[in-house]
Amino acid sequence: MDTTDVLRELGRIDLGENGLDEVMARVAALAKRTVPGAYEVSVTLVRDGGPRTVAHTGAPAEVIDRWQYASHQGPCLDAAADRKTVLVDDVAGEHRWPGWAEHAGSVGVCSALSVGLPIRDHVIGAVNVYAASRLAFDDDAVQLAETFAEYAAVALANADLVHAAAALSRQMRAAMESRAVIEQAKGIIMSQRRCGPDEAFGILSRASQSANRKLRDVAAAVVERAQRP
Predict the structure, then answer these.
(1) Between 23 and 38, whose confidence is greater?
(2) Cα(152)–Cα(5) distance, rounded to whole angstroms?
């Protein structure tokens, strides 16, 4: 597949209907199919809870990633942290990360390519492509891997926007529900005490402070008592 075909395939992924992990899994699978020399592919995301592999095409990729997370070193973590491309042409001769070459070689990996996600946010990550031969990735392969990283970054940004919108929607719904129950409680107090809305709200506020409970919870208790036979 050439770059145009790759972009067309990526464009068919519906970011709205698929979860982030599913999107990343499809990105990884497509990268394995199209990046010349690819043996296995994974996608690393680093959030507040630390790094994790959100998608991989096979056990070797996950094994290598997990070693890097446990050791706090490796090409995928460097690529993610610095948002850069890290290329290892010959795993056996690599010495930047002590122990990594031996571990990667034990699962049949001879070359590695990690591309940091080009995003400026609290979340960082990388697309990792592993090969079973030395010198597996030429300039075209690197450029194609960077294309996948760019798309993964767009998918991540989209997922964060959807998550933020959903969280805002939940907050607004909760606020409206709280407002509704408080208004109900005010109406009950106004009927019972023959008072105005301001005085009724003052009664609720004082009850909330004295009981050290949220105003909404106090209001809900008033409504619940009024509904009892």
Answers:
(1) 38
(2) 17
**The domain 170-227: what is its CATH number?**
1.10.10.10
| DSSP conformational letter for 6 | H
> Is the pLDDT reported for residue 159 higher than 70?
no
- The per-residue pLDDT for 174 is 75
Mean pLDDT of 185-201: 90
Sheet holding 111-116, edge to edge: 50-56, 40-47, 124-131, 111-116, 85-88
- Give CATH superfamily name and number for 3-165: GAF domain (3.30.450.40)
pTM: 0.68
Q: Kindly list the domain boundaries of the chain, sorted by start residue.
A: 3-165, 170-227
Give the three-class secondary structure for 209.
Answer: helix
Q: Tokens 């998550």 sit at which residue?
A: 163
Token pair in block for residue 142: 């690197």
Q: What gap in Å lies between CA 31 and CA 28, rounded to an integer?
A: 5
DSSP collapsed to 3 states, 80-108: HHHCCEEEECCHHHCCCCCCHHHHHHHCC
Q: pLDDT digits over 47-77, tens only? A: 877 899 999 999 999 999 999 999 999 999 9
pLDDT at 16 over 70: no
Do 211 and 219 touch, CB atoms closer than 8 A? no
Cα separations (Å) of 172 from 62, 99, 165, 168, 169? Answer: 40, 51, 10, 6, 5
